[in-house]
């Protein structure tokens, strides 16, 4: 189902305890430096929340909500919502690796941005378009992501297995009304229940990464 939740469910969710990922996982051991402006594409549930978290990270200059893993022809909200296009809701993050590394972005991704142990869903949102997936933009990113998942698995960072996959595929920006959704709709019930806690967790658990 899409983000059409009953008010009762939203109220319960808003009062629930922290999610499984609202913790700081270990830093990536493999995290080589990169030169010049870089982009990262990450999928992990509703792109509203991913965008809201990463646009607050130091070194990130732009975050775009969109769709990754499918064709351009099907890259629209109605088609992706049908769960037959192979897209995942994702964000494209533009960042300065001199300020924030790819490994650090992945640390935020696994710590507070989503739950990497949920298969084809995130919270109330169910379907393959909500899957946990990393779309490396370079071989170096693929190496870091693969090593980091292995590192977190070996460290038993989560009580359940990590289901995050590395995938290939282009990224397409979502419709204009999805961009900066939390900033423009801070009191929207879904945002209050599911995305505000992620932003709050980032500030509380990783304050050194938050823009001033």
From TrEMBL:
It catalyses: [thioredoxin]-disulfide + L-methionine + H2O = L-methionine (S)-S-oxide + [thioredoxin]-dithiol; L-methionyl-[protein] + [thioredoxin]-disulfide + H2O = L-methionyl-(S)-S-oxide-[protein] + [thioredoxin]-dithiol. The active site is at residue 46. It comes from the Bacteria. Keywords: Oxidoreductase, Signal. The keyword rRNA-binding does not apply. Residues 39-190 form the Peptide methionine sulphoxide reductase MsrA domain. SUPFAM superfamilies: Peptide methionine sulfoxide reductase (SSF55068). Residues 1-20 form the signal peptide. Its EC number is 1.8.4.11. GO terms for molecular function: peptide-methionine (S)-S-oxide reductase activity. NCBIfam families: msrA. Has an important function as a repair enzyme for proteins that have been inactivated by oxidation. Catalyzes the reversible oxidation-reduction of methionine sulfoxide in proteins to methionine. Belongs to the MsrA Met sulfoxide reductase family. HAMAP family: MsrA (MF_01401). This is Peptide methionine sulfoxide reductase MsrA.
């Amino acid at each position: 189902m899409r983000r059409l939740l009953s008010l009762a469910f939203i109220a319960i969710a808003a009062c629930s305890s922290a999610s499984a990922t609202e913790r700081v996982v270990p830093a990536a051991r493999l995290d080589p430096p990169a030169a010049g402006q870089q982009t990262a594409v990450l999928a992990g549930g509703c792109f509203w929340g991913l965008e809201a978290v990463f646009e607050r990270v130091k070194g990130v200059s732009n975050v775009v909500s969109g769709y990754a893993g499918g064709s351009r022809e099907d890259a629209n909200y109605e088609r992706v919502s049908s769960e037959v296009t192979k897209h995942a809701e994702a964000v494209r993050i533009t960042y300065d690796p001199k300020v924030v590394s790819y490994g650090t972005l992945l640390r935020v991704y696994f710590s507070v941005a989503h739950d990497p142990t949920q298969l084809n869903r995130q919270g109330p949102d169910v379907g393959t378009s909500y899957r946990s997936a990393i779309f490396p933009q370079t071989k170096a990113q693929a190496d870091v992501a693969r090593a980091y998942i292995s590192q977190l698995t070996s460290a038993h960072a989560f009580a359940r297995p990590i289901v995050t996959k590395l995938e290939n595929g282009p990224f397409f920006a979502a419709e204009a009304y999805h961009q900066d959704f939390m900033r423009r709709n801070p009191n929207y019930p879904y945002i209050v229940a599911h995305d505000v806690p992620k932003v709050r967790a980032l500030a509380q658990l990783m304050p050194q990464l938050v823009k001033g």
